[in-house]
Automatic annotation (TrEMBL):
Protein name: Cation diffusion facilitator transporter
Localisation per UniProt entry: Membrane
Organism: Haloferula helveola
NCBIfam families: CDF (TIGR01297)
Lineage: Bacteria, Pseudomonadati, Verrucomicrobiota, Verrucomicrobiia, Verrucomicrobiales
Stretches assigned to the Cation efflux protein transmembrane domain: 30-221
Amino acid sequence: MRAACGRTMLPAFMSGAGPTSDERRVMNGSLAVAVLLLVAKVTAAILTGSAAIYSDAAESVTHVLAVAFAAWALRFSHKPSDETHHFGHDKVAYFSAALEGAMISAAAVLIVYQAFTQYLSGSPVEAIETGLWLTAGAAVVNTVLGVSLVRVGKKRHSSLLEANGEHVLADVWTSVGVLAALFLVKWTGHGWWDPLFAALAAAKLLWTGVRLMKKSFAGLMDEADPDVEARLRELLRSECTSRGLSYHNLRHRHSGRTHWVELHLVFPDLESVRQAHEIATEIEARIAAMLEPDGRVITHLEPRSAEHHEEDWEVR
């Protein structure tokens, strides 16, 4: 007779805590900086007529919209599970990252069109010094902000903050391209450097946008992380070997900030359900600790005599 027992490390309907202070701080800072730099870049684009600066400003428009959505998504992702969302709401982080990637890609297409139009028209670049100072200041601010977002995102295992940080750092590369373009226009007197660097910046943005969307789709499709899998199997090998157990049917996924793991633990036939339950609880606790800060573990207990008698719906 199969012995079955399931347990999670927290109740099914988790209370859920809101974003941490450092998450709120960097996200609020990201939104405020995005708005301020948009104003600065639009001003610089109007004053200079530069396609490269226009490309930077166009990217900043999408960035403000994406950050506004990300700020809402950060709060929403921390909502506790409820009667209609038993596994919480943190997968919204993948939607936010996908939206950010899509908007970056759309900005890249718009930039290419603007660069091509300016190249054909041969419009001159004016007020170069003003454009240089405004763009350089934006690059410095975005570098500090982007590094902070990525650092906090990795620390808190937040794909949302990491995606926002990558977007900010992509904006830095756009600004570097603008600076190079303006320097070359000023130094050589040839205006075609401006649309050329605008097109190069667009290529960089498109690469970043596609990469963000690819990562988001992988998360939405519950793609397994090979590094996490290797760590899980190493821990399970150690725990099961020392206890004379075996395991199979390991599954795991990452839903934004929560790692979900389920597996079957195989016990000797004469092991009592109580003893098996206690051992399984210890193993679950070790797995959850490895997947900090937020691990959810479900185990299915079965006797060795039924190990290879899987039901159709349990086979991966």
